[in-house]
Amino acid sequence: MPEQKLSSGASIAIIGAGIVGVASACALQRNGYEVTVYDPDPPGEGGPSRANAGHVAASDIHPLSTPGIQWKALKMLTNPNAPLKIPVRDALAQIPWFWRFWQTSRGSRFETATRALSYLSRYAFNDIHKMLEFAGLSNMLVNKGGVFLYDTEQSFFASRAVWAKKSAAGFESEEIDAKRIAYDVPSINDKFRHGVHSYGWGQVQDPLDLVRELARSAQSNGVVFIQNRVNGLSEGKHSVTLETDEGGKLHDAVIVAAGVGSVQFAKSCGDFLPIAAERGYNLTIQDPGVELDLPLVFADRGIVATQVTSGLRIGGWAEYARPDRPANQNYYKSIARISQELFPGLNMSNTNYWMGNRPSLPDSVPVISRSRHTHRVYYNCGHGHYGLSFSATSARLLCELIVGDRDLSKHRPYSIDRFI
After folding, report:
1. CA 25, CA 36: separation in Å to the nearest integer?
2. What are the backbone dihedrals phi and psi of residue 92, each rounded to the nearest 5 degrees, phi first?
3. Angle at 17 between CA 14 and CA 23, to 5 degrees
4. C-alpha dist (Å) from residue 351 to 49, 209, 288, 314
5. Element (H, E) at 22
6. Which of the following CATH numbers is that of domain 11-419: 3.90.980.10, 3.20.20.80, 3.50.50.60, 3.50.50.100?
7. If 0-12 CB within 10 Å is exposed, 13-18 middle and 19+ buried, where does residue 312 land?
8. 81: burial class by Cβ within 10 Å (0-12, 13-18, 19+)?
9. SS3 for 69?
10. How far is CA 36 from CA 46, 52, 206, 355, in A?
11. Residue 192 CB neighbours (<10 A)
């Protein structure tokens, strides 16, 4: 397909007003484009941007599918307290996705995914700082690092090889003992004897507030937000038509940043985008009687805890299921029980429950790419756990792609072509 550049002032539509879509809007506006964002919900409210953990996981340079993942997965699926869930009725349809997921853990594919994620990780904080600074929101990012806690000495020792690789990639960390854990996290259960303080980690005060404030800043600089559903799109000779509930809307190009909904838009363009709904569950406890100074990752449990503006947020897990499947209420109960174990004396009398569909690709690497079949359709989606973490860097790469950056090697790892 011949190279297609969009000159400054071109009209670009973005489908999706989560953190990735809003970050893309901010970056495109700064590059001189006329930007319109479409979403049936207000910015940040329709997907996982609404109530995720708020972590900036810059030191996560490896895909979720690590060597030996198949044996770990089988063990987790037999444990009701483990972080992996796959409803039996949804399992068969997801076999092709899990095959690709398993393939990622093997040899050169694992290394390829690690290199792609390492680039995003390397620039995550720098790009987020620039994005927030431009919007006057620098105070919303806290970069004190994060604490990883291990249930057993065995799992802690096993993690050392991974931390060594992260250190070699430029992400420093420090092992901490029971005394240091008690000092840094005084409210935690004293059973935790081993941990790691990762300095390549951070958090935002509240992920939903961040998206809302970024959207307000973008709007004040000329970005238009339209609360309208896009049902389809089609490319003409000189434009793209968005089919919305209020009729057709013409733009010079469109960015698909619609989370799990991106799959259907890609399909209508003839593209294959293997995004699965990786559903995360969490609780936000408004008056917990517990306050955290650092974000926590309970590495053996798939659970994270963060102090956000609205309270103490505890959650995680990964349920691979249909996006429209109702939330499993038993998972909320399990996480509540685990939360009380982790934080003795936790007051859960005022708790909000939430589940969100994280758009997950089998290699954990987002698609930041032009469509294979249409000149004027681009993708910025499939970030899984890392929408917030990689939002600003993904937006920068997207802009470089649109303006015609000739360093194709930088963009190739994120191309939709890799799923052919």
Report:
1. 8
2. -60, -45
3. 75
4. 19, 19, 9, 11
5. helix 19-30
6. 3.50.50.60
7. buried
8. middle
9. helix
10. 17, 25, 25, 28
11. 20
Q: Which residues have a Cβ under 8 Å from the Cβ of 141 and sit 6 or more positions away?
A: 56, 128, 129, 132, 202, 203, 204
Question: Counting beta carbons within 10 angstroms of the beta carbon of residue 46, is it exposed (0 to 12), middle (13 to 18) or buried (19 or more)?
Answer: buried
Question: Residue-wise over 402-417: b if at least 16 C-beta within 10 A, else e?
Answer: beeeeeeeebebbbbe
Rounded to an integer, what distance in angstroms lies between the CA atom of residue 71 and that of residue 262?
31
Q: What is the spatial distance between Cα 232 and Cα 401, in angstroms, rounded to a whole number? A: 23
CB-based contacts of 92, cutoff 8 Å, min separation 6: none
The answer to whether 168 and 106 are in contact (CB under 8 A) is no
Alpha-carbon distance of 365 to 74, in angstroms, equals: 23
Max intra-chain CA distance, the chain = 66
- DSSP conformation letters of 388-417: HHHHHHHHHHHHHHHHT-S-HHHHGGG-GG
Residues 6+ away with beta carbon under 8 Å from 306:
53, 54, 55, 203, 292, 295, 296, 312, 313
The tens-digit pLDDT sequence of the chain (420 residues) is: 445 678 889 999 999 999 999 999 999 999 999 999 999 999 999 999 999 999 999 999 999 999 999 999 999 998 888 899 999 999 999 999 999 999 999 999 999 999 999 999 999 999 999 999 999 999 999 999 999 999 999 999 999 999 999 999 999 999 999 999 999 999 999 999 999 999 999 999 999 999 999 999 999 999 999 999 999 999 988 899 999 999 999 999 999 999 999 999 999 999 999 999 999 999 999 999 998 999 999 999 999 999 999 999 999 889 999 999 999 999 999 999 999 999 998 999 999 999 999 999 999 999 999 999 998 999 999 999 999 999 999 999 999 999 887 677 889 999 999 998
Spatial distance between the Cα atoms of 56 and 199, rounded to a whole number of angstroms:
11
DSSP letter at 46? Answer: S
Distance CA 243, CA 343 (A): 49
Q: Which amino acid is at 405?
A: D
Tokens of 197: 């303080």
The H or E element that residue 253 is part of is: strand 253-256
